[in-house]
Amino acid sequence: xxxxxxxTPVAGADRxxxxxxxxxxxxxPEEIPARTDLRLRIIGGVAIALLAILTLRxxxxxxxxxxxxxxxxxxxxxxxxAVAANRGVIADRTNTILVGNVVHYDVTLSLVDATxxxxxxxxxxxxxxxxxxxxxxxxxxxxxxPYQPAPIATDVSAVVVQYLAEHRSDFPGVAVSSFxxxxxxxxxxxxxxxxxxxxxxNGQELAQSPNVGYLPTSQVGKAGVxxxxxxxxxxxxxxDILLVDSSGSVIGTTHDVAPKSGDTVVLNIDxxxxxxxxxxxxxxxxxxxxxxxxxxxxxxxxTSGAVVVMDPxxxxxxxxxxxxxxxxxxxxxxxxxxxxxxxxxxxxxxxxALSGLYTPGSTFKLISAxxxxxxxxxxxxxxxxDKGTFTVPKCTGKQAGCTFHDDETAGTGLVNLPLAIIRSxxxxxxxxxxxxxxEQGRYGTEPIQKVGTAYGLDSQTGIDMPTEAYSRIDSPSIxxxxxxxxxxxxxxxxxxxGDNVEMxxxxxxxxxxxxxxxxxxxxxxxxxxxxxxxxxxAVVRPDGSVAVRYAPRAIGTVPLPSSTRDPxxxxxxxxxxxxxxxxxxxxxxxxxxSPRQLLVAGKTGTASNQKGQEPNSWFASFxxxxxxKYVVLAVIAxxxxxxxxxxxxxxxxxxxxxxxxxxxxxxxxxxxPPVAPKPLH
Length: 681
What we know:
This protein is an alpha+beta fold and 681 residues long. The protein folds into 3 domains: 25-73; 79-263, Penicillin-binding protein 2a (Domain 2) (Alpha-Beta Complex), CATH 3.90.1310; 271-659, DD-peptidase/beta-lactamase superfamily (Beta-lactamase, 3-Layer(aba) Sandwich), CATH 3.40.710. The protein contains 26 helices and 23 strands. The strands form 7 sheets. Strands 2, 3, 4, 5, 10, 18 and 19 form a 7-stranded mixed sheet that branches. A 5-stranded antiparallel sheet has the order 12-11-23-22-21, with helices on both faces. It has a 3-stranded antiparallel sheet with strand order 1-8-9, with no helix packed on it. Helix 16 (365-374) packs across helix 20 (447-455) and helix 24 crosses helix 25. The longest helix is centred in the first third of the chain and has 34 residues, at 31-64. It is elongated, with a radius of gyration of 41 Å.
């Protein structure tokens, strides 16, 4: 059985073998080549398909995407570094430099070069008196790419520059770069509130101007003209193409696009006049603090002040002084936190000519007089008896009170409108406020305010400077709006006769900036056209061509027929030139010119402050009275009476103008660029 079992074929295996052999034996010979041809055709088709795919890929690489891949390859061996442009110059109207540039030398080193030689940082640190670790940390400045030179030391001495030039082989990768920092040929304090400062651009500013070409290290205007005219002063950045090897080291430079220097901004400001005005304001404030007010027997605090000089025919700003001010050199290279906090605390960063808000006092009588005459509320030649007080008829004592006192307690007697201005009769203008309010059906509720709006005293002036404050004239509508918005802070929404009386002579809630009030007087002086004040006169390109010439911008009018203007002008002239005028004695004491040489028209202002404080001292003026070329205004906060603090400043400004008339604007050209200043006088 065993043998039989062994002889029995294994199921499947032998059968399969026998079947395969049989199949082979049974297959006709002519069928074998046919199957081979099929396989060859399949293989050939696959090969052709692969070749076609390869061909298409090569065509795509070499034809379709050739430019993009070429750029990618080149990017592996080149790096683009932006080159900062030279900032434009700021010049005054005589083509004299107010803000220029000075070359400073910085030592730079890229992170790639700093790490390539472990001893380089130590050698460079020894030369610059810095620890090696500090040098390496500065090279890692995140504002710079690893291959881009980062500043290690700024404003280095000529000795360091020369040593590095003579020992190049000892400092591979170390370079000396020249940079332009802002320079102030007149010392840094002249016109600081006008010019403003520059500082390194911050992230927000960079994000707001993504297509301008700013760098993370760009210097941009932060205040004043530097900020207002940034688009012209900044210039256009260039770029350098750096050749880089496989390790990232720079092996060469190809200059691609040269930077374009910024334009020159020419101002209407006269540097010598500006210097004179600033000095006068400074001296008067210090003198004021050291004096005793003969009426209050107090030392005025004289906390701040401003002077504005402008051309009423065009709106051109000839000088603009603010006290206290600051030195622009503190910002060069970056101001310290300590110094910045000190400047903030001192108030020096406030441009009081533009942002100071002061009660105008009697200088506001120009507006009330214009309203009264235009609306024919009174006859300018009719007399009113100023007995020293004004009592509101049928007054119940609400709000602003019933009885108002004249500054001169004895009164000024019988006065018409010109005399009321000459002697600054408060009672006369109290009566104007009362008459307007008592006849609302005829004149409306805000006739004085409407005229003030036309003069620009409830808005910004539109001057080409940042951070200008809004002036405002107190009114029933403003009081109601404030009460609705802030009921706790402004609990009263009613407007009484006493409020109108107070508003008519520049008290109450009315506050104005010195620039706004100066522009109001300029509007009256030129016959009724309100111009936007202009600090800049033109923008000139580096090649001497004029990019922009700023023409006068008329932004409003005040109706001033002769029946209105002549009586007011008569009064304003009398303030300075009539022996009974409030500024007559002041000009007699301080003016060195004769009325025939320069006839001045003006108005004193003594605006009350809180109890215990000296009043704000004002003097607003223009000259020559019948053909005005200048408007001069001064204000000293808590300075005392207008005739004793502000008026002397104005008189002395006219002394300068009489001796040094302001000339026309001189624009730079290719052959006559802005020049360095001569000593100021």
